[in-house]
Amino acid sequence: MTNKTGHCHCGAVHFEVTGEPLRMAQCHCNACRRITGTGHNVQAFFRKSDVVIHGMTSTHDSVSDKGNTRTRHFCAVCGSRMFSENSAAPDAIGIAVGEFDDSSWFKPQVILYNAERPAWDPIDSGIDIHEFM
Amino acid sequence: MARPIACLLRSCQRLPMQPKHASLELSARCPCGTVSISVRGPIYGMFLCCCSDCQLMSGAGHSAVAIAGRDQVQLEGEITQFSRPAASGATFTRHFCAKCGTTLLGGTSRRTDAALLPVGLFADQSWFEPNQVIFHRSHQKWDLLPDIPKYETYREGL
Predict the structure, then answer these.
(1) How far is CA A90 from CA A22, A44, A70, B35, B107, in A?
(2) What phi, psi does B26 have (nearest 5°)?
(3) Residue B76 belongs to some domain of the structure
(4) Total domain count for chain B?
(5) pLDDT (tens digit, 9 = 90+) per residue, A51-75?
(6) Helix or strand or coil: residue A91?
(7) Is B127 among the domain residues?
(8) Which of A91, B120, B131, B150 is the most buried (most CB within 10 A)?
(9) What are phi and psi of A92, to 5 degrees?
(10) Partner-chain contact B58 A37, CB within 8 Å
(11) B8 in a domain, yes or no?
(12) Is B103 in Cβ contact with A60 (below 8 Å)?
């Protein structure tokens, strides 16, 4: 099985993933736009047991529309977006796709919060689109 | 007379540029509430960037950037900075919230009078009309882009 690897911009945090993603998603919600600075967030979710993280991240907790706790991880040195956890799925971890050394395997399966998508940010109309969650 | 913000990205010797928006008033706060930003003034450029640095910083396939005058931007709260060399040879510095990691502002040593705003930070993005994609050479095939001109690296001029 091919390992997937990645790192933050400064290299203080890096990671290795075995196994295939559980889910690949693109989210346009206000919270995801703010933390990425662009029109959406793209994440691949894996089993936590398949992910090894080297280095320390900083975290910030927030509450999702469903009332779950989201924990967002970033590199304290360079601020790169890294990982996310959700209290509703404690065995899974989301990895920001931009951090992978090679993300050619990625393809979003679902668009979330299409209702909050900026007009300038296009999507593939052929995939599963949700106006909100 | 102050030099107009022109061709921030590469050369400072280009023709003066007309603002894309005569004046905007924008404000935002990072998700944890530690840092706030307010902008009041013209927007000089709007673009998307697919460079590998922007992918690493955002975690997405591209950044979305609006250029304002640095003296028209106010930040309040505890900020962390991270600097690195840009492809142009300039030093690019990113300012982010120490508590939640959210980018508030970017800047380049080449034009210290310019502020690069992460558009996603602002709840209202109806004013944002990117007219180019830069660093398309590192574009990821899974990242859909609007139908606007695409440049392998920098465009000559904005």
Answers:
(1) 13, 15, 10, 30, 38
(2) -125, 145
(3) yes
(4) 1
(5) 999 999 999 999 999 999 999 999 9
(6) coil
(7) yes
(8) B120
(9) -115, 155
(10) yes
(11) no
(12) no
Domain count for chain A, please give it: 1
Burial B109-123 (b: 16+ CB within 10 A, else e): ebbeebbbbbbbbbe
- B151 found inside a domain: no
CB contact residues (below 8 A), chain A span 48-107, against chain B: 58, 60, 62, 72, 74-82, 96-99, 103-104, 106-107
Note whether A80 contacts B59, CB cutoff 8 Å.
Answer: yes
Domain limits at B130? Answer: 21-138
Residue numbers of the domain that contains A55: 4-129
**CATH label of the domain that carries residue A35:** 2.170.150.70
Span A9-50, pLDDT tens digits: 999 999 999 999 999 999 999 999 999 999 999 999 999 999
Tell me the pTM: 0.93
Q: How far off is chain A from B54, nearest CA to CA, in Å?
A: 8
Give contacts of B98 with chain A, Cβ < 8 Å: 58, 76
- The amino acid present at B1, given as its one-letter code, is M
Point out the residue among A99, A108, A120 whose CB comes nearest to the CB of B128. Answer: A120
Q: What is the ipTM of this complex?
A: 0.96
- For the stretch B67-125, pLDDT in tens is 999 999 999 999 999 999 998 899 999 999 999 999 999 999 999 999 999 999 999 99
Split at pLDDT 50, 70, 90, the class of A1 is: low
